[in-house]
Amino acid sequence: MELLKLATEWAKAEVFSTRFFILFAIGFLIASVAFWQLGKTDLARAYILPSLVAGILLLIIGSGLNYTNIQRVKQFEEFYNSDASAFYQSEIERTENTLKEYSVVFRVIPILIIIAALVILFVNTPTWRAISITTIAMLIVILLIDGSAYSRIEYYNKKLKLLDFDKEMKR
């Protein structure tokens, strides 16, 4: 049962964390409306579309991850009860694959931030500046949330490996 408890706690923490994508998405969408209603300068008006797109992207990411993790919480108990050994193995494999994916994310996103910063430096139009600044803001949000998720899944993976599965199955 310790395995099921550990997995469920991790998934519930993920559900909580992914809701921050939705929270930031709402912030970007509000910013888009504010720029639309209050923006008087060319630069302020240039933020309307980029912040709208960033808000929609974060909303899609957050909603998708939230739904997936809620479903995962529901399926954990069924999978564990049907075949605890297979559940244990699948969780070890899934966490290791996810950790590898995060290593790619933490390399690519900083490169994208650097590219966006270079666009700010070398392209002097309001639209491209707004796109670049909004992109940087959105990528920083993703890094913040994914950094937290990475440490959680790394901890979960270590706990899974330390778990004496044979001892637990004898209970």
Please summarize what this structure is:
By secondary structure, this protein is an all-alpha fold.
Describe this structure in words.
This protein is an all-alpha fold and 171 residues long. The chain has six helices and no strands. It has helices at 2-38, 42-46, 48-82, 84-122, 126-162, 165-170. Helix 1 packs antiparallel against helix 3, helix 1 (2-38) runs antiparallel to helix 5 (126-162) and helix 4 (84-122) packs antiparallel against helix 5. 21% of the residues are buried. The model has no long low-confidence stretch (mean pLDDT 92).
Keywords summarizing the entry:
single chain, 171 residues, mainly alpha, 6 helices, elongated
Secondary-structure class? mainly alpha
Give the number of DSSP strands: 0
Q: How far is the N terminus from the C terminus?
A: 9 Å
Q: What's the average pLDDT?
A: 92
What letter string, H or E per element, gives the SSE order?
Answer: HHHHHH
How many helix segments? 6
General shape = elongated
Task: Set out the fold topology.
Layout (H helix, E strand, L loop, with lengths): L1 H37 L3 H5 L1 H35 L1 H39 L3 H37 L2 H6 L1
Helix pairs in contact: 1-3, 1-5, 3-4, 3-5, 4-5
